[in-house]
Amino acid sequence: MATRAASGSFPTVQVAVGSGLLRAGLQALLTQAGVPLVLSGGEVLLIDDSWLPDPALAGTPGGVVALGSVVWASLLPELVVGGWAALPADPAPAELLAAVLGAAAGLAVLPAALARRLDSEPDDEPLELPLEEVSLTPREREVLRLLAEGLSNKRLARALGVAESTVKFHVQAVYSKLEVASRTAAVTRGIQLGLVSV
Q1: Is position 72 within any domain?
Q2: What Gene3D superfamilies does this protein map onto (predicted)?
Q3: Rg (CA), the chain
Q4: 130 in a structural domain
């Protein structure tokens, strides 16, 4: 598994989807968000339905983000050792980035509608996570949401219509309340606490 170049950076991602056009689009989207791409050995493997079913996934040590079939939601927990995400074939950019961060952090990430459907199945018990009480202001929630989209401080300032120093203040407030020290950790913690939706 590759290691991160610097604390707080995005995990490295290997894009291994069947369609060249989709691969190029995903690579452009991830690159624009500042996610480092690698040809092999990334912390997160991004795949699509062309991998169904592929025994090469068995025991994958890093995170796996699978696009396309909802079958992934039942297959990935059995195949992958690390975190995983099952998303539709056309996820929103924020949804994709949150899935990459969640999978890299060892979490299971599903779209809310699919998670509700799986939770409502009679054979499965609902997943209960101990969530601490974290109170973010509406502005801090907005900052966290934009952090999940991979925006730099300069782009955050433009999006919010405030000075870059104000953005830094809000980012530090989010870090403090979530008890983290980096953007990646803040987004991961936000996902865990349900403050960032995917």
Answers
A1: yes
A2: Winged helix-like DNA-binding domain superfamily/Winged helix DNA-binding domain
A3: 17
A4: no
Here the CATH number for the domain that contains residue 63 is: 3.40.50.2300
Q: Show the domain range for 71.
A: 13-119
Under 8 Å between Cβ of 104 and 43? yes
pTM, 2 dp? 0.55
pLDDT (tens digit per residue) in 27-60: 998 998 889 999 988 899 898 877 766 656 666 6
Claim to verify: residue 61 and residue 92 sit in the same structural domain: yes
Which residues, in sequence order, are bridge partners of residue 64? 45, 84
Burial profile 23-44: b = 16 or more Cβ within 10 angstroms, e = fewer: eeebbebbeebebbeeeeebbb
Alpha carbons 63 and 43: distance in angstroms, whole number: 6
Beta carbons within 10 angstroms of residue 20's beta carbon: 8
Tally the domains of the chain: 2
Cβ atoms < 10 Å from Cβ of 160 = 16
